[in-house]
Amino acid sequence: MAVKVRYYNINGEKQSDVKLSGPLFESEFDESSLYHAVRGYLAHARQNNAFVKDKSEVRGSGRKPWRQKGTGRARVGTRQSPLWVGGGITFGPRRKELNFKVNKKVRRKALYTAVSNRVKEDRFIVIDKGEFDHPSTKSFASTLKSIGLYKKGILLLYNGNDDNFYKSCRNIQNLDILEANKANAYEVLKKGWLIVTKDALPTLLEVFG
């Protein structure tokens, strides 16, 4: 059974609804898949570069700075002591494995859930992006104003082969633009609205359908 979604032209004028079918648009909500997919995405996005050396790794001599007793100074066994300037760091950040493996089927099911949820909420829109001979942020912003979504949180999926269209969208407030073949559950859920260009629908169905 197909679902109907709103369809607008580049001028923001409503056209006949578009019928879509398949698990990408008609799946039931699967909280478990969403949880694992989002957790895996965020873990993979972390740079994990913070690292400090402890006293066993700091460069320097292992010689005891002075004898244990009789100097009047505090006893010390190594120049690498965390108490000394240039010494090791105690309990500092260390690189560790953060990757959280998520199977391809789970990631796909999560995307099905996220997209289908936007369809059920009537927050999924298809637009005909038209032709952009040159970048024009004002032009696409006008389209969003006509639809009533200007400055609202939007994820825009496009076909990825139109540089002028990309440059026309990238500076619009609260709008993230992403190639359709890179769609994922986290990016869909991060924004309240999902807009897909009409020429990107075949890509979505081919890659994820």
Rg calculated over all Cα atoms: 27 Å
How many strands?
A: 6
Counting helices, strands and paired strands, the structural category is alpha/beta
Parts with pLDDT < 50 across at least 5 consecutive residues: none
What does this structure look like?
The two termini are 15 Å apart. The protein has helices spanning 23-26, 31-45, 104-120, 137-147, 163-169, 185-190, 201-208, and strands at residues 3-8, 14-20, 124-127, 154-158, 175-179, 193-197. It is of the alpha/beta class and 209 residues long. The protein is elongated. Strands 2-1-3-6-4-5 form a 6-stranded mixed beta sheet. The mean pLDDT is 93. The protein has 2 domains: 3-47 and 98-208, Ribosomal protein L4/L1 (Ribosomal Protein L4, Chain: A, 3-Layer(aba) Sandwich), CATH 3.40.1370; 49-95, no CATH class.
